[in-house]
Write a structure and sequence with these properties.
Strand order of the largest sheet: 1-2
Oligomer: single chain
Number of helices: 13
Radius of gyration: 22 Å
Largest sheet: 2 strands, antiparallel
Structural class: mainly alpha
Shape: globular
Number of domains: 2
Length: 286
C-alpha cells in the first residue's frame, strides 16, 4: 500500500508540473487523487493510521456502536462503551483535524476529557432518571433505554468540537485558491468550519443510534424466530448497526465534505484583495 500511495503522489506531482508521461488517462489521475485524499492529511501531508481514516470508520466503529446499543446495560458497561466511543472519536478527530494553524496538544486533551465527561454524565444521568420513572412498563423502559446513547454521543461530539477548536474563532484558519495555495487566514471561514463540523457530529450518529433501536424493537416483536432463539438477537443487531453505519457515514460526509467552499465576498476584505478567485476552499476537519 505504501508503494501504491507513493506512486499516486508522484503521478499527481507530475500532473501539477505538466510533465505527465504519455498514456496516463483522466481515470488514473482521479484514482490517484482518491487514494491520496483517503490516506494523506491535506494540511500536514502525513499518512493517517488506518483505524482513524474515514474509510476505516465503519469497520472499527461498528463494534463500538453495537456495544453502545446493547440492552440492559449496567452502570459500568455504560461508562465503558461511552469512554471507548469518545476515545475512538478523539483519535479520528485529531488525525483529521484542520492543521493549517498550529495548535497545542493540550487543546485536544481538553476536548477529549470534556467529551468523555459529558457523554458519561448524560448517559448515566438519563439511565438513572429512567430507572426512577415508575410509570414506564418494563418493555417501554427497555425501549427508551436504547435511545439514550444518541443524546449522550451527540452532546459529547459538539462539546468536543467547541473545546478542541474554539481558538480557531480568534486565530482563523487558512483559505486556499483553486491552485491549493494559501491566500490568507480567515476567522469567518473558521466560524463556518466549526458550525459545519458540529452539525456533522450531530447528523452522523443520528441514523446510527436511532434507527437500530427502532428496527430491533420491530424485529423482536414481529419475528417468532428471535423470540425463540434469543442468541440470534446480537448477530442481527450487529448487522442492523452495520447497515445503519454504512448509510449514515456517506450521508454525513456528502452533506459536509472535509474541504468546503465559500465565496470570497463572504470573507474578510483582505482575503478578496489577495486573490482573483471568486470561490476559495478551507479544510473544515471532520
Amino acid at each position: 500500500m505504501q508503494r501504491q500511495l507513493q506512486e499516486c503522489i508522484d503521478l499527481l506531482n507530475l500532473f501539477k508540473q505538466g510533465t505527465l508521461p504519455p498514456g496516463v488517462t483522466h481515470a488514473q489521475l482521479w484514482q490517484a487523487q482518491k487514494i491520496k485524499q483517503a490516506i494523506v492529511h491535506p494540511d500536514t501531508g502525513e499518512r493517517i493510521p488506518m483505524p482513524f481514516r474515514m474509510s476505516g470508520f465503519i469497520p472499527f466503529g461498528t463494534p463500538v456502536v453495537v456495544g453502545l446499543l446493547l440492552p440492559n446495560q449496567t452502570l459500568l458497561s455504560t461508562i465503558f462503551w461511552q469512554w471507548l466511543n469518545q476515545s475512538h472519536n478523539a483519535c479520528v478527530n485529531y488525525c483529521n483535524r484542520n492543521a493549517s494553524q498550529p495548535a497545542p496538544v493540550s487543546k485536544f486533551i481538553q476536548g477529549y476529557l470534556g467529551a468523555v465527561t459529558s457523554a458519561v454524565s448524560i448517559a448515566v444521568g438519563l439511565n438513572v432518571l429512567l430507572q426512577k420513572a415508575r410509570r414506564f412498563r418494563p418493555t417501554t423502559r427497555l425501549l427508551v433505554q436504547r435511545f439514550i446513547p444518541f443524546p449522550a454521543v451527540a452532546s459529547a461530539n459538539v462539546c468536543n468540537v467547541v473545546l478542541m477548536r474554539h481558538s480557531e474563532l480568534s486565530e482563523g484558519i487558512s483559505v486556499l485558491d483553486n491552485q491549493g495555495d494559501v491566500v490568507g487566514t480567515s476567522r469567518i471561514a473558521a466560524r463556518h468550519a466549526l458550525l459545519e463540523t458540529a452539525l456533522t457530529r450531530v447528523v452522523l450518529p443520528m441514523p446510527i443510534l436511532v434507527l437500530p433501536p427502532m428496527i430491533m424493537a420491530v424485529l423482536e416483536n414481529r419475528l417468532p424466530l428471535l423470540q425463540r432463539r434469543r442468541w440470534l438477537v446480537l448477530p442481527v443487531h450487529s448487522l442492523v448497526c452495520l447497515a445503519a453505519f454504512s448509510l449514515a457515514l456517506p450521508l454525513a460526509i456528502s452533506l459536509f465534505p472535509q474541504m468546503s467552499k465559500i465565496s470570497v465576498t463572504d470573507l474578510e476584505p483582505e482575503i478578496a484583495m489577495a486573490t482573483n478567485c471568486k470561490i476559495v476552499t478551507y479544510n473544515k476537519g471532520l
